[in-house]
Amino acid sequence: VDNLSQKINSKLGGINSVVNTKLALSRSSKEDLFMFFGADVTHSTCSTDRPSIAAVVASRDPTNTLYAARLCEQYPKKGRCSMEIIKELDQMVADLLRVFARTCGGRLPNKIVFYRDGVDEGQYQKVLDNEVNKIKTACRIVYGDRSLPKLIFIVVKKRHNTRFFLYDGKQTMNVQAGTVIDQDITHPSQFDFYLCSQAAIMGTSRPTLYHVLHDDIGFSSDDVQQLTYWLCHTDMRCTKSVSIPSPVHYAHLAAYGSRALKFNDDRESDDFDDDNNDEEPESYSIDDIKTKLMILDSKVADDMWFI
């Protein structure tokens, strides 16, 4: 009953709880206005005829509790599987920035935190060249003559084979929620870290790997890690910390939910895959993808219908 009540309240525009994320940032000032984004792309693994669906979700209030989503269908080149890159990201981000401004009395964020799910290490450069630039393009369109916001772009990777354990001399056990590993086994020159933000109810806990691809803000490693951990406590569907930050979890839910509604599929079907496709040929470019922005009913477009 509690879980159902939280979902109903969220869909009706209510707030279940608020986490003051600014307390997680040692270098944040009272004047800073943050906006949090999450993005994910789902692919149909059993057919190349169905489009991939890209979802971008963003906070739309100063407490970073309420979120809105924008969706886009991505049709691959005939006979090919789709790409992971979100082609219309600039339009989607610009629209969500306008939603934020309407909710916040015309104010726009001066700092943007963007979490991106489903990108493999081999596609990091493509993401930097395409998606990070598209986010900045969207900001230039919306901000006009105003100062542009600073951006941090973080890739979230759930699927890997790394596990961590505690050993007390007699037995091994799962690490506690909030455990961070950022040295020895991480990348020698790039900024990445493992965070186990959830408590394992059953079985072996699985940490999430985070890779910071771009940072204009200048966060310290402690700032990024603590902010990410705190965002794992803001999920409107749960009263405990979850395995990934709520913005990227919401993007995952929006992408899967919209595909289920459009194609009348089961939300739990295994025909969906939110990871990248490694079969992508070199000759296949983003220009070959045909897109179609999904228009949501105006009554729910800016609400948390995906919860």
Automatic annotation (TrEMBL):
Superkingdom, natural source: Eukaryota
Signal peptide: none
Molecular-function GO terms, alphabetical: nucleic acid binding
SUPFAM superfamilies registered for this protein in UniProt: Ribonuclease H-like (SSF53098)
Domain Piwi: 1-255
Coiled-coil residue spans: none
Pfam families: Piwi
InterPro entries from the UniProt entry: Piwi, RNaseH-like_sf, RNaseH_sf
Name the record gives this protein: Piwi domain-containing protein
Lineage, broadest ranks: Eukaryota, Metazoa, Spiralia, Gnathifera, Rotifera
